[in-house]
Amino acid sequence: MGDNKENKKNKKTKLTDVASLGEFGLIDRLTKNISLRHKETLMGVGDDAAVIDHGTHVGIVTKDLLVEGVHFDMVYTPLKHLGYKAIVVNLSDVYAMNGEPQQAFVGLAASRRYSLEALEELYAGMLLACEKYNVDLAGGDTTTSAAGLFLSISVVGRAKKEQITYRSGARANDLLFVSGDLGAAYCGQLVLQREKQAYKANPDLQPDISKYAYVIERQLKPEARKDIMEMLRKAGVQPTAMIDISDGLASEILHICKRSGTGATIYEEKIPVDRRMAQTAHEFNIDPTTCALSGGEDYELLFAINQKDYEKIKDLAGIHAIGHITGAGQGANMVTSSGQVVELVAQGWDSFKK
Amino acid sequence: MGDNKENKKNKKTKLTDVASLGEFGLIDRLTKNISLRHKETLMGVGDDAAVIDHGTHVGIVTKDLLVEGVHFDMVYTPLKHLGYKAIVVNLSDVYAMNGEPQQAFVGLAASRRYSLEALEELYAGMLLACEKYNVDLAGGDTTTSAAGLFLSISVVGRAKKEQITYRSGARANDLLFVSGDLGAAYCGQLVLQREKQAYKANPDLQPDISKYAYVIERQLKPEARKDIMEMLRKAGVQPTAMIDISDGLASEILHICKRSGTGATIYEEKIPVDRRMAQTAHEFNIDPTTCALSGGEDYELLFAINQKDYEKIKDLAGIHAIGHITGAGQGANMVTSSGQVVELVAQGWDSFKK
């Protein structure tokens, strides 16, 4: 044993590339030793946001990072849009808990390449999102970075205790819904990346990207679905489970199944896709369904409801029944338009696997 | 007017280097358009942390960034220490509000240079701090960066509403106290930077840094003064204003004066300095008082108390009366050991001015 220890010490330890784990594998490894001490911490790692007990209400806390060169490319990302999006993606997490966001906190590290005017643009976008969604920009930290721009936003929200909606509440035979349409944000990124390459090859080129306006806006300036949460509340329906679609529909369905201990079946023909997204996808020789399942960054809501609530929401605009929850043993599957059953796989956006 | 507008548009706009503003100037500019909408947001930008109304209690939210190459140097910063410090500096902000930290949220962006084992070390340090200070690591976001390591920590705490202590409550004739001793963290950094240069010049050199153990530990592994907050509470004393010393004593005194609308007078001979810090400072030909006033990163508490409370705490260990609050017109001054009166200037650590 002593020898082994020495050997181990003297040999250069073999280190593990985090890329071999992927984002979720890495998070599982890093958080496996966490134990919660405070009875007030109702939910820690493992949902869209943490939940803290305040008595009749709960507090909701999100944190999302946006990193230059990983989550955004300054060549085609206007700073005002970036600021807007940085706030919105956090609000989306609060709505996915069925809560109301109230305060935003901005961590900003920018290299000396960013002027005061650039950072003011970024702040203008953040304040615009705060105004639109009725949120206070209540604090933060501002510093330099050796290179690049890093945004770390946290949003604090609240909900009545009985309203909070976790990923874990779905039960067999619940119906699965999504809001809006899926896949467009990813197609927007494909267009922007292509135009960047074209610009690099020929800076004098003035490309006409107006026909891609919809998918580009979905990528650069997403909205959080506050309206959907309010519509469901007005209809008297509380989802049994809810998550926002940041990594792609397939990945989010698997999160709900894992946390709820269920399976799920969805139907390809029921997945809402916009005509403009489908056109762009075809242009890039990608199946629109693939964009919807794995594209990510749509920030739509995926939620399950008890069947008894179906009548209350079946005629509401902007939401779409795409399938249902099944027993755990049945896995998470999609019935394709041609009638085949394929297993859902999380191929969503994963910065660690790039 | 039309012409001016055109001119303005056609001329390349002159951009402002943020270095010309400094950290506080930049924050003032970026946050000047913020207005608060929620009555629950009791304190936004402008104190150690934001404060949110929950009825009988308040929630406290901090955010602090640690950026590789700006706040730490991987050549001499053990990752476990870095994780520990990243949590502690946020806890310090909660204690400075006279609150109890409860949940920590970790935003982590690391380049591919960081192995799983390296990130596990970092997490081990964060979890150690969470355990020691009885805080739940309750969420976060983990992603890659193009280069370097970025840590963005938020801590959520709570306090009874009547206990919360802002920077703004100091009144003329209050007494000013600091905990612990000041300037050592800065001296620790001086030693580490010198050793790094020596190592670069001759990697075979094995320097004996044991005589600097105290100042190095103050730099690499600071503690938050939970004990001081508890001691004051036990003594039945609530500070009228409090702040933690992250940027240096002078800068923090000016913060209290600005927010409280007061002046202050402190006495050089009363500033607590450790013998080991003073020795190191002399070795570097720096006045120990300068280290205490401008060094920063000590994470001690600076607080004001009403004179009527003096009897209750005058015999407590670990805190030191250094002066008193004066009227606004009198400015913030230090009486030197030789009897001169000098104005306090914020020359604290400012990443934007490097």
Q: In a few lines, what is going on in this structure?
A:
The structure is a homodimer of 354-residue chains. The first copy, chain A, has 354 residues and is α+β, with helices and mostly antiparallel strands.
Describe the protein's topology.
2 copies of one chain form a homodimer.
Chain A: H1 2-10, H2 22-31, E1 41-43, E2 50-53, E3 57-67, H3 79-95, E4 100-110, H4 116-132, E5 136-144, E6 149-160, E7 175-179, H5 184-201, H6 213-220, H7 226-234, E8 241-244, H8 249-260, E9 263-267, H9 275-283, H10 288-294, E10 301-305, H11 310-313, E11 319-326, E12 332-335, E13 341-343
In whole angstroms, how far apart are the ends of chain A? Answer: 40 Å
Assembly state (oligomeric): homodimer
- Lateral strand order in the biggest sheet of chain A: 8-10-7-11-9-12-13
Low-confidence stretches of chain A: 1-11
Gyration radius of chain A, rounded: 21 Å
Helix content of chain A: 25-40%
Mean pLDDT of chain A: 92
Number of strands of chain A: 13
Q: Which structural class do the helices and strands of chain A define?
A: alpha+beta
